[in-house]
Amino acid sequence: MYRPGQRGIRLLSSAVTHVGRVRHNNEDNIHLWGDDNYVLAIVADGMGGAAAGEEASRIAVETVQQHMINGVYAKPHDYEDIDEYDLAEKLETAVREANLNILKRAVMRPEFRGMGTTLTMAFTRQTHVVLAHVGDSRAYMVDGHDGHISQITTDHSFVQALVDAGHITPEEAENHPMGNVLYRALGQSADLDIDLIQDVRLQIGDRMILCSDGLTLHIKPPEIAAIAMSSTDPQQISQQLIDLANSRGGKDNISVIVILVGEDGTNKMLDAAEAELEVTLQETKDPTLPASSLPTATPVKYTASARTYSVGVWHSFNGMHGEGEGQDIYEPVQ
To answer: What is the 3 state secondary structure string of the chain?
Structure first.
């Protein structure tokens, strides 16, 4: 169960998206909202062609924004006391609203019919993570001690279903001709199954990676882990992953969000100051002196180093319009 108030933790995060080297428009949408202890990260990979895919991913993330940031939840730390199961339910409701808004938009605008999007989001509160997931964008966790990488989400693709059923091997899945066909995505139908993943626990040094399939098309999980462990700067990690995917062809839009669990140097300084003050008090204490003559603690404010993203502000990134190749498609399960 999530318990707020854990000391010594500081979340560092970065989000980067790139159109790639083949397509002319970026149908991905990525978002970050948070502070040093709370981060909501979203990756949405639109599909449907040209502006339609971009419209679907935009609607998805904007709907989540409106649902998650309003009323009593105006700032990241406002989520401090909400129960983990209630948070998961809130994420699920946001995804369902996004799905319905996409369907409504497609009915109103015929040119957007058939549009859809994946959506993978993770709400990290210190070391506790809750995820909501639809589609084939992914969330990985990289162990900060041994560099082992684990895929937290499951792809909702026909190829993954074949792997799960034992019909093909993971190696055969890598080059399967139906690799870009999804059986579950936002915008497909009003009845949407959503994967909710709870009880994910991080340790200091761990990295959480969210990405679109434009990254995993070119970079295998062990390589993602190696790059994630090569730096403690999330911005550098995300940019290196983008650059490597582009160097190998960049056949699709590429989006990466990195969340790193770091130690809070501010707490270390505060602990040291408290220890020093305690020693001073012990050395100064004299039963013959009045209590008013003992030294008193003076509140000290430590300012953390600058972050890439402002506290409590949504940051969204997408690309330009145009025609392109390599689009994902989705089909219902028969």
So the answer is: CCCCCCCCEEEEEEEEEECCCCCCCCCEEEEEEECCCEEEEEEEEEECCHHHHHHHHHHHHHHHHHHHCECCECCHHHHCCCCHHHHHHHHHHHHHHHHHHHHHHHHHCHHHCCCEECEEEEEEECCEEEEEEECCCEEEEECCCCCCEEECCCCCEHHHHHHHCCCCCHHHHCCCCCCCEECCCECCCCCCCCEEEEEEECCCCCEEEEECHHHHCCCCHHHHHHHHCCCCCHHHHHHHHHHHHHHCCCCCCEEEEEEEEEECHHHHHHHHHHHHHHHHHHHHCCCCCCHHHCCCCCCCCCCCCCCCCCCCCCEEECCCCCCCCCCCEECCCC
Q: How many Å separate Cα 258 from the centre of its chain?
A: 7
Output the pLDDT for position 55: 97
List pLDDT tens digits, range 311-324: 334 455 554 333 33
* CA torsion, ordered 258, 261, 266, 269, to nearest 10 deg: -140
pLDDT at 102 over 50: yes
The rounded distance, in Å, linking the Cα atoms of 141 and 148 is: 8
Beta-bridge partner residues of 17 = 255
Residue 150 pLDDT more than 60? yes
Domains and CATH numbers, the chain: 9-285+313-330 (3.60.40.10)
pLDDT greater than 80 at residue 270: no
Residue in 18, 16, 27, 17 with CA at minimum distance from that of residue 325: 27
pLDDT of 264 reads: 85
pLDDT at 313: 43
pLDDT at site 78: 94
Q: Tens digits of per-residue pLDDT, 24-43?
A: 999 999 999 999 999 999 99
